Amino acid sequence: MQTGFQNATYANLFGIVVYDWSNAKNLWANAHPMNSEELITAQAELVYAQDPGVPGYAPRVWAYRNTIKALNWYTSVREKLDDPAYSSWFIKFKGFGDAPYPGGKGLQQNGSYHVPVCDWYNNGTHAPRCSGFYHDQEQTPEHPGGGKAYPVDGACITQCDCGPVNPCGEYIFNHSGEVVNGQSFRDWFVNSYMVSNETLFHKNPITGQPQPIGLGWLDDSMTPHGPTEEDSNYIADTGASPASMAAQVDAYHESMNQLISTVIPLGGFYWQLMDTGGAKLNKNNVTANTTVCTSVLRSACVANYSGWNRFQMYQIPSGGRGFTAQTFTDYTAEFLLTRGPYSILGYTWGGCTNNDQTWPFAPDWTVDYGVPTDAHCTESPAGSGTFVREWTHATVSWDCGLGHGKISPK
What we know:
The protein is α/β, with parallel strands linked by helices. It has a domain at 286-409. 22% of the residues lie in helices and 14% in strands. It is built from 9 helices and 14 strands. The protein has helices spanning 8-11, 25-28, 36-50, 75-81, 185-194, 234-238, 242-263, 290-300, 325-338; strands at residues 17-19, 61-66, 69-71, 135-136, 170-172, 214-219, 222-223, 226-227, 312-316, 343-347, 378-379, 386-390, 394-399, 404-409. Helix 9 (325-338) links the parallel strand 9 and strand 10. The longest helix is centred in the middle third of the chain and has 22 residues, at 242-263. It is elongated and about 75 Å long.
C-alpha cells in the first residue's frame, strides 16, 4: 500500500508477509522527519494484533532492510549519518573529507558529479540541503518539479525532510567504518541496525512480551562495479580505485557473514537465505514437455533430495494474474508433491497497489492437507510418468502426460 497501511485482514490470509519501505509511503514521506522504519514496525503490529502466530515458531511478519544503501528515511540510519562522529561509516564524494557538507560550497557543487549533491526545493524558509556523503536520487522521495535529476519516488508535499543536516537520498554504508564510541560499523550494522528492537528483539507494545519481527528482504549488495541498484557512475563520483573497490566488497561480505552467524542462532532468517527455485514444473513451459517433466520429477522424487538442503520458496509468478483455478492447483500440487521439511509457497516482491489490486488467495490454500505420510514422492506405477505422494488428508499426484497436478481429498 502506498497511501497507507495494508489491510491486516488480507495480510493474515498468508502465513508470512514481508514489508519494505514503500509500504505507507505517502504517510512517511510527508512526516517531519521521515519515519519509514517505525511505520514498518507499526504495520507488523497491526498484523500481529489480529493473528500473533504460533509462539516459538519463526516470526510471521518480516521487515525489509538494505545492506549497502544507507537510506536516511530510516531513523536509525539518519541518526548516524547526521552525526559527524560517524562520518567514516559512510562513503563520500571524491574530493571531500569529513565535513558533511560539500566543502561548504553547497549548490555550487551541483553538476560536479553525475548525481546532485543537494536537493532542489526552496520555499523561502528551508534552503536546499547539500551533502558531501555520496548519494543518488534513484528511488528517493522528492517534492515534484525538480526535473530529470530528481525523479519522484514518493511525493513530498513540501521539502522532503530526512532531518536537518543531509538531503534525502540513497547513501552508501562503508562496511570498513571505524570504531566510534566503542562500536565498529560492523557491530552496529549487525547488532543495532539489523537485529534490534524493531526486528528480532521486538516486543508486543501492549503486553511487553517478545513478539519478533523477522528480517525480510535484505536488499542490494556491493560489487566490484559499485553498489547494486545505484547510479552507474558510483566509482567515478567517489574516486574509488580497483583496490578500494575490492576492499569495499570484502568488507561487505565480512559483515554479511557475521550477520548470518548472528541471526540464525536467534531463530531468525531472511529472504536471501532461501532457495527460490522450488517451483520447476510450472516454469519454462515444463508442463507441456512430458520428457522434461518426467526427468524433473524423477530427480526430485528421491530420498534425501539435495534441494531440501535449503529452505525452499515455491514462487507464484506475476502476482497470480491470469491464473485459472487449475493453474493454482498445479502450483499447489507441485509444492505438496516435492516440498521438503522447510518450504513455503506464495508470492515474491510486489509493488505498491493503492488497494486497487490484491493478489489472489487460492481456495487450495484454505485446505488442511495434514502432513506427508510418504517421505518423498514416487513414480507410480514405475515408468508411467505419473508421480504420487500421500498426505494425511489427501493424495497428491502429477501426470506428466497431461501436464497437470491433482489433489484428491481423503
